[in-house]
Specification:
It is built from 6 helices and no strands. The two termini are about 35 Å apart. The chain is an all-alpha fold and about 180 residues long. InterPro entries: DUF6580 (IPR046487). Pfam families: DUF6580 (PF20221). Keywords: Membrane, Transmembrane, Transmembrane helix.
Length: about 180
């Protein structure tokens, strides 16, 4: 149930207006948690929910024309994160594995989408190494915020149950006794 709650939080964090400087979304952390907690056969649920959110935001909130082709890479990335999280975290969750997921998830999104922006917008970014660099530099503030929000959401989602177990275990009990 908590994986669905985090998915709802991810949708709300994208739909509720917030200051441009904040750019906080629970997408990365919720996809990591969903992949760790739900079977892969349910991969379509978060991808479809986030696709519907993309449609709503594009067509109704921003009032831009919606083109499925503009979002295929993002939706494929959503699915890939769920699969990645499933193999990384479904059987064994450790702080190191969660930290790896937290770093890899926003970093992969940053690298893939900024490369795609460079390829897709030759008038905005010249087709040169300098143009590619411009694309990545332009994305750095978003990357920073994505890394922070993914760390916060995943840290809480995976950390709260661990903390709850530690708090419910008597401190005077000796391990193995």
């Amino acid at each position: 149930m908590s994986a669905y709650f985090l998915l709802l939080l991810a949708i709300i964090s994208r739909v509720v207006p917030h200051p441009d400087w904040l750019n906080f979304t629970a997408v990365g952390g919720s996809l990591l948690f969903f992949g760790a907690r739900r079977p892969l056969r349910q991969i379509w649920l978060p991808v479809a929910a986030l696709a519907i959110t993309d449609y709503y935001l594009t067509a109704f909130f921003y009032r831009y024309p919606f083109h499925v082709s503009d979002y295929l890479l993002t939706w494929a990335w959503h699915a890939a994160v769920i699969v990645f999280a499933h193999f990384l975290l479904a059987k064994k969750i450790t702080a190191a594995r969660v930290a790896a997921g937290v770093v890899i998830t926003p970093t992969s999104f940053f690298l893939i989408t900024n490369f795609a922006a460079w390829i897709a917008n030759p008038t905005l970014y010249p087709r040169s190494l300098a143009g590619l660099g411009m694309s990545y530099v332009a994305g750095l503030p978003f990357y920073r915020n994505d890394l922070i929000s993914t760390a916060a959401v995943a840290g809480l989602a995976f950390g709260i149950p661990v903390l709850a177990r530690q708090l419910s275990t008597p401190h005077n009990r000796i391990a193995g006794a």
